[in-house]
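seq as requested:
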Amino acid sequence: MIFNSMICFLDDYDVVQYCECSGTDGNDGIAGMWSEYIGKRITDFLDIDLELTGGYVKWRGALLKYVKSKNRLGKGSVISLTACTDNSPIYEKAMDCIAEGIQVFDRNGYLLFCNKGNERIEKMDRSKIINKHLLDIYELDAEFSTILNALKSQAPVINRCDNFKNKHGELITTMNSGYPLFMDGQLIGAIGLVQDNSTLETYWTRANVFEKYMSERKPERQHGKRKDYYTLKYYTFADLIGNNDSFAEAVNLARNIALQDCAVLIHGETGTGKELFAQSIHSASKRKYKEFVAINCAAIPESLIEGILFGTEKGTFTGSSDRMGLFEQAEGGTLFLDEINSMDLHVQSKLLRVLQEKKFRRVGGLKDIDCDVRILSSTNEEPLACIENNRLRRDLYYRINTVTVTIPPLRQRLNDIELLTAYFRDKLSARYSKKVTAVATEVIAIFKAYNWPGNVRELLHVLEYAFNIVNGPCIEPVHLPKYFQVRQPDKPETETDTPAICQPILHHKTLAILMAEYEQQVLTQVFQDLNHNVSKTAQLLGIRRQSLQYRLRKYKVKPIQ
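struct tokens:
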């Protein structure tokens, strides 16, 4: 039994005083049921929010729309209930959760519904285009429309790439599919599925994760270990942002050699994104469904790095145990040796043997272990200079240097500053749940005038600092760290310019002293700006709490009393 509408009169205590039902079937069955509710609070039998003036509520499996208003003829209030037999509000909310754009047109080409995914892809407010004809929404010819062709042919039009302009004149590129809709054999409309590049990348990533799960799945594994099937999503070449010619050349070279399974040496200053390149090469290689294991050779003590790389046998030294090394963990996959020039020369010689013979032994072990690992390595200094300074074995260099990818520093990519700033702004907006939609032109000018010793990583941390300060929609110079606010960017520095901050002191201070002073200045400023909060300062600077506390003690940085 259903009803078209019901009116309930409530007193000041929300108790039902009278009900009137219209449009019932089954004689007076519905009215009889509701007569049982007279004298009861409406919230006793309906999960209804009386603080609202309207909404939806379930009653005996049916979805009802309700509107609350004052009783102008007496005390209390009036609740008007209308049956929603098609559950369309629920379906519309469900389709808003889908990233893919969804459009529903009637048989004449007028838009009846589109979801939030379609708003995002086509950059149009759906409230302003509903009930408009397709050709009034988009600047295109009828013969090129996926939906109009689906309506005309009464057959699906699948995976058709379209270029069109939206109502704002913006050029949009999408891949569309259109399907005609029939009811009782009659054409009633069509549905369009819209995908852009970001949607396709999402599906590609999901497909890779699922394929990896299926390839590694073993029946004997327990359900409790299902989480082991899901591994970290590594960066891909789509995550390498930049239009600079030198940077694009490095990306293209890395992309070309990703499938070749050769050793790659990545050269770049600290913060340029060497591990992002390494992960991107791994993600595009035939080893992408195996492990990517990274180790920072500069962060491991010389006495431990050999055991970490090759593993240990029980009884080799006091407290030792049978432990797998990184080479075994990366079997079939990729091992990334970051800052390999910081590795002890003795360990470099053992690494050379592994690369030559594809075998290694655990520390204290007597058994050779076969090894199938692709080696990616990096240096933050010029490789040939490392060889001359006896920090990198020449024979190892020729083994790991089949191809060298050189990443330019950010000071040589000033034309990418604005692009990277916008990218990080959007990324941080989602992370911090802040609607920061703009960066002031003065900030961009300051960024282009700065020398960026910390490269892209420093740019990210500077913007993250700003996000901790800003309250409005735009990042202004006042939101930057103090050492940016004192700069006066009259002109951008070129590749050959000496950074202004270094010009007066280059001739009487060593690089180590300059870097220590700069590090102390940054630590002091950020620590004070964040009200001496160690956790937030460490997070913003991208270092561990212990490392920050060590540096604070080293430079004698103390909270201001």
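The radius of gyration is 32 Å.
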